[in-house]
Design brief:
Strand content: over 45%
Radius of gyration: 20 Å
CATH superfamily: Outer membrane protein transport protein (OMPP1/FadL/TodX)
Number of helices: 2
CATH topology: Porin
CATH class: Mainly Beta
Helix content: under 10%
CATH architecture: Beta Barrel
Structural class: mainly beta
Number of strands: 17
Distance between the termini: 47 Å
Strand order of the largest sheet: 1-2-5-6-7-8-9-11-12-13-14-15-16-17
Shape: globular
Order of helices and strands: HHEEEEEEEEEEEEEEEEE
Length: 309
């Protein structure tokens, strides 16, 4: 009984499914930095985690990096979620002639970018297990250094100790991003443009279609703010509104983050704040996020580690 209760609570955080759609593989705010900023990440990105929010913003990466995160969802000790992502930006070597000499410079703003990601969810209650595994990647092309288009393709794999509750599928998402100024960025993302989930119990479903628009602005050299709006199939009106901020109190050393999110259509309407922090040591960055959850559940703590190289 506890297994079904937890599974229903997890699925209930997504909007009520329309006919032919599934509540499996709900996004649940991927990434520690994104979680701490309230999920306002569609127009921000610029790191490997953008694979799950807006693949077009992968274009704004400036180096290679690996990110890993772990969370015990809702503090229940029953549902564990992990993310592993790798991102890179193609560096273009440009030849210039200066004072009758050949000079080769590295252009890190115009090259193609990509990311690979592995996402997992493990639910274990009363000797009943359920797991979801998502494996895929994303790629972003730039037109100049201001506009980008991105695609994200993932394979979906679900399994369970319960007979026939398993299946496989795919998901294709599309995003665009525009660097409106040296400080402002705007993004639009449709994460489930085409999807299919084929279950062993002779059922074929798809993920609900949704669309997000986001904006971010670097207010100062060490302060960034962002905001998101999202509509989703199966809900009427606005499904999600989020806002967040990041302040590097000690530049490149210590940051504090915060956000607020409003979500409708699930177990209950959610109006909850989020908090987080980051500490950088040379090429390492340690991330933490705290997310308030619906009253029926406990709160979620997320831990992350990133390596730049």
């Amino acid at each position: 009984m506890r297994f079904w209760l937890v599974l229903l609570l997890l699925a209930g955080l997504a909007p009520r499914a329309s006919a032919g759609t599934t509540t499996a593989f709900a996004s649940n705010d991927p990434g520690v930095r994104a979680t701490a900023m309230g999920g306002a990440y569609t127009g921000l990105g610029g790191d490997p985690g953008a694979l799950y929010w807006n693949p077009a913003t992968l274009f704004f990466q400036s180096h290679r990096s690996i990110e890993a995160s772990y969370s015990d969802l809702y503090g229940l000790g029953l549902a564990k979620r992990t993310f592993f992502t790798y991102g890179s930006k193609h560096v273009i070597e440009e030849v210039h002639y200066e004072d009758d000499q050949v000079v080769v410079r590295q252009n890190r703003t115009s090259g193609m970018a990509y990311a690979l990601g592995l996402e997992s969810l493990f639910l274990d209650v009363d000797e009943n297990g359920y797991s979801e595994l998502s494996l895929g990647g994303g790629i972003a092309w730039g037109y100049g250094d201001r506009f980008a288009i991105g695609l994200a393709l993932r394979g979906l794999f679900a399994s369970s100790d319960i007979e026939d509750v398993s299946g496989t599928g795919y998901n294709l998402g599309l995003g665009v991003a525009w660097k409106a100024s040296s400080r402002d960025r705007i993004g639009v993302d449709v994460p489930h443009l085409f999807s299919r989930m084929i279950w062993k119990f002779d059922s074929t479903e798809r993920l609900p279609i949704d669309a997000s628009v986001g904006w971010s602005r670097r207010m100062f050299n060490n302060v960034t703010v962002s905001a998101d709006l999202e509509i989703r199939e199966g809900t009427s009106g606005l499904y999600r509104a989020a806002a967040g901020g990041e302040w590097w109190v000690f530049p490149d050393r210590l940051a504090v983050r915060g956000g607020f999110r409003h979500v409708t259509g699930g177990v209950e309407n959610i109006d909850k704040p989020t908090f987080g922090a980051a500490m950088r040591l040379s090429r390492l960055r340690f991330d933490y996020a705290y997310r308030f959850e619906p009253d029926a559940l406990g709160d979620t703590h997320r831990l992350g580690l990133a390596v730049d190289f």
